[in-house]
Specification:
Number of strands: 14
Radius of gyration: 24 Å
Largest sheet: 7 strands, mixed
CATH class of the largest domain: Alpha Beta
Mean pLDDT: 90
CATH superfamily of the largest domain: Response regulator
Number of helices: 11
Strand order of the largest sheet: 7-6-8-9-10-13-14
Low-confidence stretches: 1-33
Order of helices and strands: HEHEHEHEEHEHEHEHEEHHHEEEE
Distance between the termini: 83 Å
Number of domains: 2
CATH architecture of the largest domain: 3-Layer(aba) Sandwich
């Protein structure tokens, strides 16, 4: 019993000393002062078929945070990036990844990477009042669930209509075939808006070929249908894995139309085992082209390659990099502090990002100012690129 009493006495004495230091100011940092760290959570596919997207977002977010921290932080505040894998899968995987980020102290959310997973997560972020900025979940419905979610990527409606606009204005083709994933919100969303804009611009869709998540391993029937219909161009509002199957199937039957896609095709040159020569001449709309010669783009590409084994960043990386830099700018301008809760930060950020006069210039959107309105959609310009000699080249 004596030893127990001694231990209790020591504990009480320690507590009294600690309280004395706190009362006298001691070494404890006062609440609300500069310093500490703000935690940014990244969620996306770090494994699985879409892992190129999620890994690129994670790496670019970390690169941006490291650069900011190395320069002294934001008013003395450092950024910490944490990440969770949702395998681009809706349902419990997506929800659990988000909840894990919250458990780890996330204060600002850079995610999700894909639309399918995002549709299950956005209602949760709205309920929790967490500021959400997605680098690549382009579905229009992503930003409709609450006033807390914003996109730095193009919306599906924007990608679809801009693709039809580019094809028509540049006389790329008149007869169009389309191969899309009817089970995927991203793919269907882009296609529906492409179809509407194509009709306005006199483009003839001669073949509409759908597949689903359970039938996407063999797309030869869809490719043959486009060939039989005389499609001069095949529009591919799909991800790079499925696009590689389309290109291989077309090659097998000697079908050589023009192929045109959106941001989902970015990554096709990095598929293991895929003959990249089959992608020669493929065109796509993207917010970022790594071969642009402006100082900002080349500095980013050099830093990314140096950090990640000479890997060339794709547009997912560029959008994520812009996303962290945008968050940092808002934190600085609004004097946000590390001791604020996620909800407090959200209230400030969602008002600031769509305030009159606010704009952000980053790597994406042709390096022109980006703006947002209360809908959560970004206003910025796309760039067209073509694959030549195994690389993306600006058109």
């Amino acid at each position: 019993m004596k030893s127990v009493k001694k231990i209790l006495a020591l504990v009480l004495a320690t507590l009294m000393i600690a309280a004395c230091f706190a009362a006298c100011g001691g070494k404890e940092e006062p609440q609300g002062s500069a310093g500490g760290e703000i935690v940014i959570g990244v969620q996306g596919p770090l494994t699985g078929g879409a892992a190129q997207y999620g890994i690129a977002v994670k790496q670019a977010a970390e690169l941006a945070a490291n650069e900011i921290n190395a320069a002294g932080g934001i008013n003395g505040i450092k950024l910490k990036v944490i990440a969770e894998d949702d395998q681009a899968t809706p349902g419990d995987l997506a929800k659990n990844a988000y909840n894990s980020l919250l458990d780890k102290g996330m204060q600002v959310f850079l995610g999700t990477v894909t639309t399918g997973a995002g549709l299950d997560v956005v209602p949760l972020t709205a309920e929790d009042n967490v500021f959400q900025l997605t680098p690549s979940a382009s579905g229009d419905a992503i930003i409709e669930a609450g006033d807390n979610c914003f996109q730095i990527c193009f919306t599906d409606s924007n990608q679809g209509s801009r693709s039809a606009q580019y094809i028509a204005e540049n006389n790329v083709a008149k007869k169009i075939g389309v191969i899309y994933d009817s089970s995927d919100a991203y793919s269907s969303g882009i296609y529906n808006n492409f179809k509407a804009e194509a009709a306005k611009r006199g483009l003839e869709i001669v073949a509409e070929q759908a597949f689903t998540a359970s039938t996407k391993t063999d797309l030869s029937t869809q490719v043959q249908a486009c060939k039989s219909a005389g499609a001069e161009l095949v529009f591919l509002p799909i991800y790079y894995t499925e696009a590689s199957i389309v290109l291989s199937s077309a090659n097998a039957i000697g079908y050589t139309p023009k192929f045109f896609g959106c941001d989902g095709l970015d990554g096709i040159l990095s598929i293991e085992g895929f003959d990249t020569k089959l992608a020669e001449g493929v065109m796509l709309l993207t917010p970022f082209a790594a071969d642009k010669q402006d100082d900002a783009t080349q500095a980013f590409v050099s830093a990314y390659k140096a950090a990640y084994n000479n890997e060339i960043p794709n547009q997912f990386a560029a959008d994520a990099y812009d996303g962290v830099k945008l968050i940092a700018k808002l934190i600085e301008e609004k004097n946000i502090t590390a001791d604020m809760s996620a909800s407090e930060i959200c209230d400030i950020l969602k008002a600031a990002i769509c305030a009159d006069g606010f704009e952000f210039v980053g790597l994406t959107g042709a390096c022109a100012p980006m703006t947002w309105d209360a809908s959560g959609a970004v206003s910025k310009d796309p760039a067209a690129v073509i694959i030549q000699n195994g690389a993306y080249v600006s058109l």
